[in-house]
Design a protein that fits this description.
Distance between the termini: 40 Å
Helix content: 25-40%
Family: Belongs to the methyltransferase superfamily. METTL16/RlmF family.
Radius of gyration: 25 Å
CATH topology of the largest domain: Rossmann fold
Number of domains: 3
Strand content: 15-25%
InterPro entries: METTL16/PsiM (IPR017182), METTL16/RlmF (IPR010286), SAM-dependent_MTases_sf (IPR029063)
Protein name: U6 small nuclear RNA (adenine-(43)-N(6))-methyltransferase
CATH class of the largest domain: Alpha Beta
EC number: 2.1.1.-
Number of strands: 14
Shape: globular
GO cellular component, one term: nucleus
Strand order of the largest sheet: 5-4-3-6-7-9-8
CATH superfamily of the largest domain: Vaccinia Virus protein VP39
Number of helices: 14
Length: 468
């Protein structure tokens, strides 16, 4: 989390329950007497957000049912990063901002103006219920003179119609994740280290309205339209910022921005990673003004996760107990058992290093695959078409995205070859075989192009089973 985020220390639920009776209705005690909430219960999450806003920011907020419940720590991360950018650019006075898609509780404007009394906002929304609640929440907190809720319904543009003979300091938004087919994978949204998906995000998204969760082309197309409109408004807004939910989207957009810098159509851009527990988001900012050098702006620094280390059994039977033999054995597994061809193997003096990338989880369900192979072979001997007997796995993650390109972005998407290749992989990890005193160890780390950490854990378990 951001160093100024007050939720770096988790709220004490027992204390909250004693002080706020509504929240107390959603807590329970485990066998040791510790107080918890059910993160799969939308009512509990709604009560938690409302309680924290009241306790920590003195904001009285109502969030309707069937509408998105915002995660407070992550929203605060985003605001604090924008504060850092403004300080870096020396934009400290007469701050006027646009929040795109403010939601039912206008979370960004309410938090930002509470933390920064001199800031003013225009907050747009298209959902009628959200508009009603956002207006009420602004009025109930006496912020009418600093926050204006704007009905963007039946307007084709996202924000450029607001920038007519006006100047704004920044734009911010947390766009809908999913495209209109709702077939997006949840792999890169929230995954626990043990590989299990968190129910928190899926159930929370189930409380959202269609407008909050889904848009044509998903967040990639939405942000590309923001980029396209930014080419038309340019210096009328000092900084354009977005918070992104998918790593694949982030990498593709970062690639586009780099290309724009090289073509001198942008002045500079910045990016950072936002973390809340197991959940990651990414943020981008760009500007057309040469006065603001975003490339060397502050980033939120996170501690790197510890590498996975496994000590090999000296009495292993699969191969000789030496670095060279183990490296050759792993290379053979990657090629012939896992059918992974996208890896590099570097043999050094006292260790061997691998860089491994894959979009297929062939290390999963090894027993089932062996049974299917035996079944397939037996069916062949009976001259029976075996296709109907073989269980099908999940489809590989589709890397195609609705391009959603505006007129100004098409040339960058088409000309930049880097944006046409895979920007993320189901697995991207390093593997090092080396000695630790008298022992030989395998050290694995998740790399930057991996969609999550779980695939690295799974591959290590696969190697543990094989290296015996």
């Amino acid at each position: 989390m951001h160093p100024r985020n007050i939720y770096r220390q988790k709220p004490v639920y027992e204390q909250l329950a004693r002080e706020y009776s509504d929240f107390a209705n959603h807590v329970y005690r485990d066998e040791k007497g510790k107080v918890h909430i059910d993160y799969g219960d939308i009512g509990a999450l709604r009560s938690l957000t409302q309680t924290l806003l009241k306790k920590d920011f003195h904001l009285n907020v109502q969030i309707p049912e069937q509408r998105l419940v915002p995660t407070l720590p992550m929203r605060l991360n985003y605001i604090l990063w924008i504060e850092d950018l403004l300080e870096h650019c020396r934009l400290c006075y007469q701050i006027k901002a646009i929040d795109i898609g403010t939601g039912s509780c206008a979370i960004f404007p309410l938090l930002a103006t509470t933390l920064n009394p001199e800031w003013r906002f225009i907050a747009t929304e298209i959902d009628p219920i959200n508009l009603d609640y956002a207006n009420k929440n602004v009025q109930n907190n006496n912020l009418n003179n600093r926050i204006t809720i704007y009905d963007n319904h039946n307007i084709d543009t996202i924000f450029k119609h607001l920038v007519q003979n006006c100047h704004f300091t920044f734009v911010m938004t947390n766009p809908p994740f999913f495209d209109d087919t709702f077939n997006d994978s949840f792999e890169d949204i929230a995954t626990k280290p043990n590989g299990h998906k968190t129910s928190f995000h899926w159930r929370k998204m189930n409380s959202a309205s269609t407008d909050e969760a889904i848009c044509d082309g998903g967040e990639l197309a939405f942000i590309k339209q923001i980029m396209d409109e930014s080419f038309q408004t340019k210096k009328s807004i000092d900084l354009y910022t977005v918070m992104i939910g998918r790593k694949k989207t982030f990498l593709e957009l970062k690639c586009l921005l780099k290309d724009m810098i090289e073509n001198k159509t942008l002045a500079s851009f910045a990016h950072t990673e936002l973390c809340q527990g197991n959940t990651k988001r990414w943020a981008l900012a760009w500007t057309f003004d040469d006065r603001y050098q975003l490339a060397n702006s502050p980033k939120i620094i996170h501690l790197k996760s510890k590498p996975l280390i496994h000590y090999l059994n000296p009495n292993m039977k699969c191969c000789d107990y030496d670095i060279q033999s183990i490296g050759n054995f792993i290379e053979n597994l990657l090629l012939n058992d896992l059918h992974i061809e996208q890896f590099q193997m570097i043999k050094l003096n006292k260790r061997i290093e691998f860089d491994i990338k894959s979009n297929e989880a062939n290390w999963k369900n090894q027993r089932r695959k062996r049974r299917e192979k035996l079944l397939q072979e037996s069916m062949k001997t009976m001259h029976i078409d075996t296709d109907v007997f073989i269980a099908t796995g999940k489809r590989p993650l589709d890397n195609d995205q609705n391009n959603g390109d505006g007129q100004n972005l098409k040339k960058f998407s088409q000309s930049n070859e880097l944006c046409k290749v895979n920007l993320t992989y189901l697995l991207h990890c390093s593997l090092i075989i080396k000695r630790d005193k008298q022992d030989i160890v395998i050290k694995m780390e998740t790399k930057e192009m991996s969609q999550n950490k779980s695939a690295t854990y799974e591959l290590l378990q696969y190697f543990k089973n094989k290296l015996t």
